[in-house]
Write a structure and sequence with these properties.
- The chain is an alpha+beta fold and 202 residues long.
- It folds into two domains: 108 residues, LON domain-like (Archaeosine Trna-guanine Transglycosylase, Chain: A, domain 4), CATH 2.30.130.40; 73 residues, LON domain-like fold (Orthogonal Bundle).
- It is 31% helix and 31% strand.
- Strands 1-3-5-6-7 form a five-stranded mixed beta barrel.
- It is globular, with a radius of gyration of 17 Å.
- The termini are far apart.
- It holds the Pfam family LON_substr_bdg.
- InterPro entries: Lon_prtase_N (IPR003111), Lon_prtase_N_sf (IPR046336), PUA-like_sf (IPR015947).
- It comes from Rhodanobacter denitrificans.
């Protein structure tokens, strides 16, 4: 991990989940706990995001969970009520961040002071990773229709390619978190390529 210059801390609510949200990714949630209904109200009222962090210890419901230090800012793009009357939201993944300190409110909602990371610069995909572009096209066709209209230029961006593969390949949550934390998009592609044989049928 490269050393990063300190940026001003930003205060935001945190939403620990059993899954990883990547920059550019999409998150769909059903909200029923009062603390997270408050979170949605706050974010929609002020037009702000919330931090999604992988749960390291604990559960998504009940007592406050222990979140990973590095997560992704989510911004709500849509919401609706499902047949059971529960609030459903769609959020889009933005910048990554590191939690400097966190605290739990009396209702269990976590809030954190976070250092927002700069977005990875666009970097062309080296020719030796062309197979990963083909694999992603196949995964999107069967698993992620929301990306079917992505421009060809997206597949040529090492960061976008790596994040989409990391969310669609059958990695465990710890591996996904590792891919999120890497700050070299080409290194991310190299590690994804190296674990591909695990998923090949005999």
């Amino acid at each position: 991990m490269a050393v990063r210059s300190q940026s001003p801390l930003v205060e935001m609510p945190l939403f620990p989940l059993a899954s990883v949200l990547f920059p550019g990714g999409r998150l769909q949630l059903r909200i029923f706990e009062p603390r997270y209904l408050d979170l949605v109200r706050e974010c929609t009222r002020h037009g702000t995001g919330f931090g999604v962090c992988l749960i390291l210890q604990g559960q998504e419901t009940g007592e406050p969970a222990v979140p990973a230090a590095i997560g992704t800012i989510a911004r709500i793009s849509d919401f609706h009520r499902d047949d059971g009357g529960l609030l459903g939201i769609v959020a889009e993944g933005g910048s990554r961040f590191r939690v400097a300190r966190s605290r739990a409110r009396s209702d269990g909602l976590l809030r954190g002071d976070v250092e927002v990371w700069p977005d990875e610069p666009k970097q062309p995909v080296p020719v030796e990773f062309a197979l990963l572009q083909t694999i992603l096209e196949r995964l999107i066709e069967t698993m992620a229709p929301q990306w079917r209209d992505a421009p060809r230029s997206a597949y040529d961006d090492a960061s976008w390619l790596g994040f989409r593969l990391a969310e669609l390949l059958p990695l465990d949550a710890g591996e996904q978190q590792h891919m999120l934390e890497l700050d070299d998009p080409v290194q991310r592609l190299a590690q994804l390529r190296d674990i591909l044989p695990r998923f090949q049928k005999p």
